[in-house]
Amino acid sequence: METYKNKYDFIKKQMNILAVPYEFGGWESKVTYPYFAGESTETPTTTEDGYEETTLLLNGFHRGKYIVLEEIKEKIKKHFDPDYGLRATTDNGTIAVFFDGCFQLPTGEADLKRIQINLLIKEWKKKGDM
After folding, report:
1. Residue-wise over 72-110: b if at least 16 C-beta within 10 A, else e?
2. How far is CA 52 from CA 17, 60, 103, 123, 127, in A?
3. Is the pTM of this model over 0.85?
4. Of 5, 10, 25, 32, which is the most buried if we count CB atoms within 10 A?
């Protein structure tokens, strides 16, 4: 089983496997459509067992038909199953990533379509990393 540097490295690898153009923190490459840019929000830790939750917001953009974004969403949903998730080992511990819903967002431009896909990342850190 492959070990990843961190949860963001894992997501990047999975997006490559799915052939989804993706960058974390904003799109900085030459713009080609469709593309996805990720950002995250962390839930405050309330336990002492090393458990943390992060929601990764995948913002997808496309100039053209919305169905292209919908097809990518279905691919991501199947890959990060909402019930079973996709698990991996990182340098910090273990993670499980689940599809956690999506919705369309207006852009103000008639031909620019946008979708937000949420991935829930559950992370259990190694004892030495807490």
Report:
1. bbeebbebbeeeebbebebebbebebbbbebeeeeeeee
2. 25, 25, 24, 5, 13
3. yes
4. 10
Side chain identity, residue 65: K
Q: Can you read off the two tokens belonging to residue 15?
A: 């997006």
The per-residue pLDDT string of the chain (130 residues; one tens digit each, 9 = 90 and over) reads 789 999 999 999 999 999 999 999 999 999 999 999 999 998 877 777 778 999 999 999 999 999 999 999 999 999 999 999 999 999 999 999 999 999 999 999 989 999 999 999 999 988 665 5
Asked if 116 and 105 count as a contact pair (C-beta separation under 8 A), the reply is yes
Helix and strand tally (H, E) in the chain?
2, 7
Residue type, 41: T
Q: State the amino acid at position 103 in one-letter form.
A: F
